[in-house]
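pinned: reference chain
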Amino acid sequence: MGNKAEIVRKIPKFVLVNLFGTAVDLAVLWIMSHFIFHSYSGDYLLSPLISFEAAVFSNYCFSFFFIWKDRTRGKGSAGFFRKYIVYNLSASLVFLVKMCFLLLFEFLFGWNVVACNLAAVCISGVINFSMGEWVIFKRRIG
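pinned: its structure tokens
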């Protein structure tokens, strides 16, 4: 388990990386829906899926080389891609958790979608950081 000072140093990096990932998601979504796809399924299914995956890959690269770089040195390309599979699965599951909380908050409190999403992002962000710290990039003993 990481010490408190180490975790406190990683949290701002994590927030910045995820803000950048959000920008990637929005930019790719806009490009896909405006220039590539010109149908309902392209705009509302394929574009968001591709933009989500672009953001996940961006966040993973920053996580691997910036946030948890002390735990990934010497892993090589096989280690990079092996961890990416786990990271992608984790990000997808955390996204589903976020959506469940978003819907739960709307049901319980009747908030608008932006408020529900903000509250859900706070919860899913803690889960996402925890998965990175203690599962995906956990410190190996020995």
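why pinned: The mean pLDDT is 94. The two ends are 14 Å apart (CA to CA).
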